[in-house]
Amino acid sequence: MIPFAISRRRLLAGAGLLALQGQPWASEAGGWPARPIRMVVPGPAGAGSDIFARLLSVPLQQALKQPVIVDNKPGANGLIGNDIVAKAAPDGYTLLLSPSSAIAINPVIQPKMPYDTQKDLLPVAQVGAAGILLVANPATGIRSLADLIRHAKASPDKLACGSWGSGSTGHLVLEGIKAQYGISIAHVPYKGVSPLVSDLLGNIIGVGFVDIASPVPHIRSGRLIALGSTGSARGPALPEVPTLTEQGYRSDADGWYGIFAPAGTPHEVVVRLNQEINRILSTDEIIQKFAAQNMPRPPIKDAEQFAATVHRDLGVWQSLAKVAKLRVD
């Protein structure tokens, strides 16, 4: 059984719905949406989750005939934004567009969570499947994963790699690379992707893990070098960049972006959102826009299928965190 809030959705379809009829959001569900919808993004403007939230918000508000307002709430590797949605009224008017790191990794490495990911957040729709990029400043002379490994072995404890925070996807992948190849690389956590990219461009730090979308212009201009990407497929905007798996790194981890709602959100609202989002993801316009951002063609999944993906990834990241002996206080 998938121990996710999706099980509550099943209850709402049956007798459990009666228990909620006294709540204000239950009576509103039939007329949903009747007012603007807030889409919380647990990252700063310009981050991958923000880019995709803004790409989706326009066609989604056209479909729902209500404004969809993107609200950036960055900080603490997504904990701040996710906590807002986890504790919001389950009425369909507060949604979360989150990367996998804030959903599937935080519960593994955070000893004190202000909410329970599996009980308080309801998977609605997967809106993208993408890994992350390992990039370097050209001045480092590092052009591939093999170069990075050679550099680390030649100069132990002198190489540093940034990510957008302790416990981020990049942090865990870095620890996995270090464990697999027996190398030492210092991890430097940043408060988001944007300041990390800025320091990479200035060669303040030579190597870093960034999201799949925001560094694409800098890679095309030659100001950053893409060493490889995580995930099972190359990015459509950078087809010349091999995956880290192609270069020998062993990992089952893949990345994604997803829409979540507070647990207890009415079943009919979840179904409507899932259907509208999947319809939007199937349009040529969105497919092309995602490809321009280096995002592969979005998968089409119902809410239960997406919940299964999230549940699987919890296990993958838990295994990697154990190898890295990683906990974030």
Plain-language structure description:
The chain is α/β, with parallel strands linked by helices and 329 residues long. The protein folds into 2 domains: 194 residues, 3-Layer(aba) Sandwich (D-Maltodextrin-Binding Protein, domain 2), CATH 3.40.190; 98 residues, Periplasmic binding protein-like II (D-Maltodextrin-Binding Protein, domain 2). Helix content is 42%, strand content 17%. It contains 14 helices and 10 strands. The strands form 2 sheets. It has a 5-stranded mixed β-sheet with strand order 2-1-3-10-4, with helices on both faces. The protein has a 5-stranded mixed β-sheet with strand order 7-6-8-5-9, with helices on both faces. Strand 1, helix 4 and strand 2 form a beta-alpha-beta unit. Helix 6 crosses helix 14 and helix 9 packs across helix 14. The protein is globular and about 65 Å long. It starts with 5 loop residues before the first helix and ends in a 5-residue tail after the last helix. About 7% of the residues have low confidence.
Set down the secondary structure blueprint.
Blueprint: H1 6-12, H2 16-20, H3 24-28, E1 37-41, H4 48-64, E2 68-72, H5 79-86, E3 94-99, H6 100-109, H7 117-120, E4 121-129, E5 132-136, H8 145-154, E6 160-163, H9 169-181, E7 186-189, H10 193-201, E8 207-211, H11 216-220, E9 225-229, E10 256-262, H12 267-281, H13 284-292, H14 303-324
Parallel strand pairs: 1-2, 1-3, 6-7, 6-8
Antiparallel strand pairs: 3-10, 4-10, 5-8, 5-9
Helix pairs in contact: 4-12, 6-14, 9-14
